[in-house]
Amino acid sequence: MPKSALDKDLKKVVSLETATYGSARSVAAPGMAVLFLLGAMALASVFVADGPLTYLVVIAAVIAGYMALNVGANDVANNMGPAVGSKALTLAGALAIAAVCEGAGAIIAGGDVVSTISRDLLQPHEAMEAIDFILIMMAAFLAAGLWIHLATVFGAPISTTHAIVGGVVGSGVAAAGAGIVAWPMLGTIVASWIISPALGGGIAALLLALVETLILNREDRLAAARRWVPVLVALMSGIFAMYLMTKGLKRLWKPELTHVLAGGLAFALLGWLVSRPWIRRRSTGMDSRIKTISSLFVPPLIFATALLSFAHGANDVANAVGPLAAIVATATSGSTADGQVVLPLWVLSIGAIGIAVGLALFGPRVIRTVGEKITKMNEIRAYCVALSAAITVLLASSLGLPVSSTHIAVGAIFGVGFLREFKSNRGLVNPGVQPRTLFLKTSRLNATPEEAIANFQKRERRRLVRRQHLFGIAAAWVITVPAAALLSALLYLAMAAMVVS
Predict the structure, then answer these.
(1) What's the CA gap between 54 and 323, in Å, rounded?
(2) In whole angstroms, what is the distance from residue 417 CA to residue 372 CA?
(3) How far is residue 168's CA from residue 434's CA, in Å, rounded to a whole number?
(4) What's the average model confidence in pLDDT over 377-387?
(5) Where are the transmembrane segments (predicted)?
(6) Separation between Cα atoms, residue 498 and residue 487, nearest integer Å
(7) Which positions ≥6 away from 258 have C-beta within 8 Å?
(8) How many domains does the chain have?
(9) What range does the domain containing 301 cover?
(10) Per-residue pLDDT for 27 more than 70?
């Protein structure tokens, strides 16, 4: 039936409303970001004592706020992307949970006594003036913020830590030459490019293979789920208890290894006792389809992503505002900060609020890349990714290996994707030859050349990991440090010229 004129007019009105809403949102987001940065400026003006370098601290607070916005927009997607991609959480729900948990983690458990970058990565000479060190730090995290902003625009998840390291190296070399940099530390950063995604991907793939073996490949999936899902929830409870004790709550409590292990066992038992009757009730009347079984993993997945966000806020808020704390200490003492600097509450607040605001305003683009564009997610795969992130961080920390949470999460997603691709492509013909040759070599599998071509196309469709995102993300990882370093060096030279003039 042809549409009436009224239907066509209503469709035009709806399209106009959608376009208006999109335009309003595109204007509102930068406006809210500007308001937040003005608030950061006002906060610094209130809490920083008057002095000759006060104006630089106020400017640095604005830069720290900008950095926090970008950390929220890019880094937080690693935790929420798989849950959104699996449809376990809506985008709005994920944004709300992440904003609350990231902010809570930063305020409650963030602000651990951090070794300043000047001691860990830079070795400034005693004659370096305070203003030079402040300019190095300002250029470093402004460059990092700009680079992360650019990556977010293109939807590429990158390591904010690596961006800051590159920024510090670039401005440090521009200010005082290559001798100021502790170069051996950069070796650990380069090592993490390989270690982090490899560990995350391998562990996630093993977890997914375990779930498939114990549950999905069984004849009676429902009975297997009732038996093994509580065990997997217990594993998750124990791992995340140890994760929070060692990483997320380290400012509040630094337990011994025996306490961590005992806490992990206790929470594992509690997770099993709570989930076992719940799984039995929830599975009553269910069928044994994989999609139905996957729904049993939704509550554990949401719980895991919330805890990951809390721990991320506690650990990575220093990425956003750590240099600001060093600048505040330097401006207050009048000398380069080379000890340990505590993040003041007002500095933490800028980081916590900025991360939450950046996630809400600019996070959806990277969330969709992580959750939807690399490989198809469901609740079970997303659960394996979340659990893999916690296990990898714990394992790497115990071995003293440098890892990046961003690289772990993205590597875990690629890991489950490549496992799916491997299992899907087993038994299919090799498409690396011409169709006629393919037909001659696989006559037992293909009756005709057309069938050989069809199998070739089928295999191509079953490339379940989108290669363009793999190569694009890997390239962004590799160039983050040198790009941030170059940008930071240029910014330092420009800032130094303006201060001198």
Answers:
(1) 15
(2) 11
(3) 52
(4) 89
(5) 27-49, 55-77, 89-110, 130-151, 163-183, 189-216, 228-245, 257-275, 296-314, 343-362, 382-399, 405-422, 470-495
(6) 17
(7) none
(8) 1
(9) 29-426+465-500
(10) no
